[in-house]
Amino acid sequence: MYVVVGLGNPGRKYDATRHNVGFEVIDYLAYRNNIEVKKIKHKALIGEGTIAGQKVMLVKPQTFMNLSGQSVSEICGYYKVDLDKLIVIYDDIDIDLGRVRIRKKGSGGTHNGMRNIIYMLQKDAFPRVRIGIGRPEKGDLVSFVIGKFTEKEKEDIILSIKLATEAVENIIEEGIDKAMNNYNK
């Protein structure tokens, strides 16, 4: 079983913010694959179904971003998930707005949600899909990431959410190496 986790913060206050693009990819994956993500289990909203003939669980942790590892480690432990079948989707300030990057493994970088997942799992060898949200030209980083996209940015981010969704489906269908070749351009 694949476990696909989109990172974000729970609550309407954070809907459509830069930090919640992971949630938006999960919503779009659910829509495209007719999976309802509404069951509350393991400190998360989850939905189960199939993508490309593979059983999947779509996950939106309901802990706040910096504690995402609590939910992810609980799910991985309970279902005995092979970490190569854990896919985490999140925003990245170190990537230009609208760009999508896939990695097999690595550090959490500047992302506290990813750092917490790695800390809780005690491993970093799992696929991730990063969505570029850019950096603020000035001002405080926290306000930037929990802020909403400007009208000018919305078109780019909608396209990157669709691209990230396709990338996740490609990972499940053809494997991480093929997906990296197809989407890391």
Structural overview:
With 185 residues, the protein is of the alpha/beta class. It has a single domain, classed as 3-Layer(aba) Sandwich (Rossmann fold). It is built from 6 helices and 7 strands; from the N terminus they run βαβββαββαβααα. It has helices spanning 21-32, 68-79, 112-121, 141-145, 151-174, 176-183; strands spanning 2-6, 39-41, 44-51, 54-61, 86-92, 100-103, 128-132. It has a 7-stranded mixed β-sheet with strand order 2-3-4-1-5-7-6, with helices on both faces. A hairpin with a 2-residue loop joins β3 (44-51) and β4. The two termini are 28 Å apart. The mean pLDDT is 96.
Quick summary:
With 185 residues, the protein is of the alpha/beta class. 38% of the residues lie in helices and 22% in strands.
Report Rg: 15 Å
| Helix fraction bin | 25-40%
Terminal Cα separation, in Å? 28 Å
Number of helices: 6
Based on the structure given, which CATH architecture is correct?
Answer: 3-Layer(aba) Sandwich
Shape: globular
CATH topology: Rossmann fold
Largest sheet: 7 strands, mixed
Order of helices and strands: EHEEEHEEHEHHH
**What is the CATH domain class?**
Alpha Beta
Report strand %: 15-25%
Ordered list of secondary-structure elements with their pairings:
Blueprint: E1 2-6, H1 21-32, E2 39-41, E3 44-51, E4 54-61, H2 68-79, E5 86-92, E6 100-103, H3 112-121, E7 128-132, H4 141-145, H5 151-174, H6 176-183
Parallel strand pairs: 1-4, 1-5, 5-7
Antiparallel strand pairs: 2-3, 3-4, 6-7
Helix pairs in contact: 1-5, 2-3, 5-6
